[in-house]
Design a protein that fits this description.
Layout lengths: L1 E8 L2 E9 L10 E6 L9 E6 L13 E7 L9 E4 L6 E6 L3 H6 L13 E5 L2 E2 L2 H10 L2 E7 L1 E9 L9 E3 L7 E6 L13 E5 L6 H9 L4 E9 H4 L2
Length: 235
């Protein structure tokens, strides 16, 4: 079975990627999980698919929270993670490069791999402080991380003539993600939740202060790229 993902705009219809599931993967019990999108523009893009066998319930989906163990040979060996700790209580994964995490990813099934947009909530049982978790990473060879899955969404907002307030409280802009801490009455009241991270405004991606400036200058209907915890998205 082949899935094709398309986008359609005034210039035409464009293929964003394709995913394939073999019959033996769903024929007996069905399927409920993620499929890698081939030839996708964005790295590690995937498609969530559910296939039910007639008369049967679909199997459980991939976990929204899981434990990930990582080991490196020496304290000088890189983990390969780019992290954002601006939320102070957790660590947001911005990228997974060459290093211990990528090596360990290769040894586990896809739905238990750590990837960009995931959130690390504890390291070796220590949570609640992004600073402590970073320091702990630096001093150990083995780490067991509690990870919450996030999803990247396209959120459409109508800014009207641009005169109404945004209705957003945001953490002091830093890095490349604009962290939403509160939502009041305004353009984005129904589209965003506290804890969301805005990563693009229209086609623009950049520093969080630039994203905030772009938001304040918008009018009409605009697409926002938003990273949201999967447990919030699935409510």
């Amino acid at each position: 079975m082949e899935f094709c993902v398309y986008e359609e705009d005034p210039t035409g219809r464009n293929c964003l990627g394709k995913a394939v599931i073999e019959s033996e993967d769903y024929a007996e019990e069905g399927f409920n999980g993620e499929l890698a999108l081939k030839a996708a523009r964005r790295a590690h893009a995937c498609l969530r698919a559910k296939v039910q066998v007639a008369g049967e319930d679909a199997p459980p989906g991939p976990p929204l929270e899981f434990t990930f163990g990582v080991e490196r040979a020496t304290k000088d060996a890189p983990y390969g993670l780019t992290l954002d700790g601006q939320e102070q209580a957790t660590l947001s994964v911005l990228a997974v490069g060459a290093g211990a995490f990528a090596d360990c990813n290769a040894m586990v099934r896809p739905d238990l791999q750590i990837r960009a947009t995931d959130v690390i909530t504890s390291v070796n049982g220590i949570g609640g402080s992004s600073t402590q978790m970073v320091e702990l990473f630096a001093g150990v060879l083995q780490a067991e991380c509690t990870v919450k899955r996030s999803v990247r969404l396209a959120v459409f907002a109508d800014f009207g003539d641009g005169s109404a307030p945004l209705g957003l409280d945001v953490y002091e802009p830093q890095g490349t993600q604009l962290l939403v801490t509160g939502v009041q009455e305004g353009h984005l009241q129904k589209q965003l939740f506290p804890g969301d991270r805005i990563v693009s405004v229209g086609a623009f991606e950049g520093e969080s202060q630039q994203l905030l400036d772009r938001l304040r200058g918008q009018s009409g209907r605009v697409q926002l790229g938003v990273v949201r915890l999967a447990e919030v998205h699935c409510r």
